[in-house]
Amino acid sequence: MKNKFIYALALAAFVLSSCDETTDTIGSSLTDIKDHLKITTDTFLVSSRSIVVDSVLSRSNNGYLGRIKDPETGAIITGNFMAQFYVQENFKLPEYDKIRSKDENGVFADSCEIRLYFNPSFYGDSLATMKVTAYEMSKPMEEGKLYYSNYDPIEEGYVDGNAYKESKVYTLADLNKSLANRSSSKYQPYISIPLNKEYTDKNGKTYKSYGTYLMQRFYENSNDFKNAYSFVHNVCPGFYIKVDNGIGSMASIYSSQISLFFKMETDSIFEGATLFPGTEEVLQKTVISNDKATMQSLAEDNSCTYLRTPAGIFTELTLPVEEIFNGHENDTLNTAKIVLNQLNSKVDSEYALDNAERLLLVQKDSLFSFFEEGKLYDNKRTFVSSSILSSGNSGTTANIYVFNNISSLVTFMHKLKTEGMKSDANWVSNHPDWNKAVVVPVTITTSSSSQYSASTVMAVNNEMGLTSTRLIGGSANPYTPLKISVIYSKFSDK
Asked: Model pTM greater than 0.90?
């Protein structure tokens, strides 16, 4: 393509924004006839393809529970999850003598349940009948171990054949509660799984219920409740919540807890309650079952590329690094911008999956280590898109993901190849992914000290919710080609 030259005002603006000189040297730097800054622009084609990803690192604090039929592909997607529960430091139940729920065997729980609080913006039909089973785990998930979304805790021995288990049939719209109650702004929808059957612990002792087990264990040895580590390793390793039957809904579980109820007395007898929440201090892991054949079939569609979560499909970009630097070896690459255009969904359905909201662009060789090492994007070799998006079934046309400047990554790739070729003539063939980057849907966790302070990025995790996005690209792309726009600069003495 023909290069475009920008002078005068662009020159002044570039120098004012890019130089580190103080104001007393700006005049001389602009008028020194020995230095001439030349700025050029160009565009290059970028090739892309869909790549199937069997699983992703499951590190989100949200769990996903349910089973749905994807209206786009007809594939079945199932979400189960593992949850641990937390106690505060030096946790205490009321004094033993204050408990009025007692019989000849000691204190007991009037009732106990797992509550799974889910976001109101769930996927699917609120009246779809679902059945889940909660299995007590035989051992806890361990800190430092990497759990991917295809991890099967039953096959891996985290749930044995003698596991305590309780099942529950539910709909996300709890019809046991009135419409007025469910419509209240204070209403927090949740799935309740009772834990009121007889429970036998690993030592063979039988208790009236799981809640009774928790209470009696505390009064026998409160030291096992002194912190979350002791509780998880000595009392309650956690539960695996697994979908057994039903199809039509997927809930995003933002909070789980064991709720324990009993009667106690101070001046009068009343119902007491103790909560064991699932929090960031303990582990919550989503387990996803996807149709691999369907994912492979989508990836083979070369008229576009796909992004599918949870797990499923990412988009791979091959950056034209050699073309960008050909003839510009002594230039500075100032900017390199890529715009990914999203295609409208093929599905005309209220249940069409939404588009991914945020995308991470990461060097392909670093795809798994980025998440495993808990890294944050640095705008040097990893980048997050700015986006103008609509939902999956909207007609909005301004659906784009923008990576405003990945020049540092392109420059790094060029340097990597240049240095590698010095010692290995076959370096490129030995490193086939050297100029490849992958686009990955992510969720970003931020925090701020006050409503007036800037947010700080705390975590970048794989998107574990249901999304499906088609992008312009692929080897048989019928639309405008995918391009990268670059700006170079260099000083010359002419």
From this structure: no
- Asked, as a colleague might, if the bond just before 153 is cis with ω within 30 of 0, I would say no
- What are the two backbone dihedrals, phi and then psi, of residue 223, each rounded to the nearest 5 degrees? -65, -25
Query: Which residues are bridge partners to 326 per DSSP?
Result: none
Please give the backbone phi and psi of residue 452, each rounded to the nearest 5 degrees, phi first: -100, -10
Using alpha carbons, select from 360, 357, 402 the residue that is nearest to residue 378.
360
pLDDT tens profile 130-150: 999 999 999 988 878 888 888
Residue that is written with structure tokens 């309740």 in the block: 192
Nearest-5° Cα angle at 209, 205 to 213: 55
């909005």: which residue's tokens?
Answer: 396
Are 163 and 210 spatial neighbours (Cβ–Cβ below 8 Å)?
no
* CA–CA distance, 97 with 470 (Å, rounded to integer): 64
In this predicted model, what pLDDT tens digit does every residue of 83-129 receive, in sequence order?
889 898 889 999 999 999 999 999 999 999 999 999 988 899 999 99
Tokens standing for 6?
């920008």
449-to-276, 376, 446 alpha-carbon distances in Å: 27, 19, 11
- Rounded to 5°, the CA angle 112-115-121 comes to 165
Could you tell me how many helices (H) and strands (E) the chain has, helices first? 10, 29
Contact yes or no for 189/174 (Cβ under 8 A): yes
